[in-house]
Design brief:
mainly beta, four-stranded parallel beta sheet
Length: 216
Amino acid sequence: MSTPPPRTHLAILGGPAVWSLPKEGMATSPYIVLNHPGACDAPGEWQLNRETGELKIIPFATENLARAEIVAPALQQLVAAQGDAEAGRYVEYVSFKGLAFQHAGWDLPPEGFSTPQAACKLGGSLEFRAARHCTLNGCEIAHVDRYGAYFDADSSYNTIQQCHFHDLGGGGVRLGDPDRPKSFDRVASHNRVDNNFIHDGGHTNPGATGIFLAYS
């Protein structure tokens, strides 16, 4: 958000937007303001003052903060596997089985974040680029603020099976990229998403989907 003119009570968005605001045919557009002190006024809400380190929480009637467990994520990603398809160097035969991946954040970039439908530009808390024959089997991915798992357009022959994705800022699984691939061999192919339980998502990016496939 750009610096607003003084005493005007105007908020000026500084970053680019995929869609016009308000959208064509709509009188107004819905929006969300995060971490504003004046908006923390109902049970279940909280606000962090990063300058003082003070955390304000309004608990639900059934909650007791004296016994509450509060977790602040220290990482943006829990797994970042990076290959190089152009150089022919792939991340291969990496397998995770029966592990719990929990608590990862996502900081909004200074220019903001605008994406077409399904939050299709949002990365993954478990992210694989140029990966082949990698496996997520029987894992839990929870309390994360992006897509749970993302395999890019250069990733093929990977398997995500019997995993539990929940409490997600984005969606569950994202395969491929929405931009037209440079060539046929730069298409995410032969990936398997099988018998996963995906629910309770879209908390930060409500447009995100359970499973997003693009050129896959």
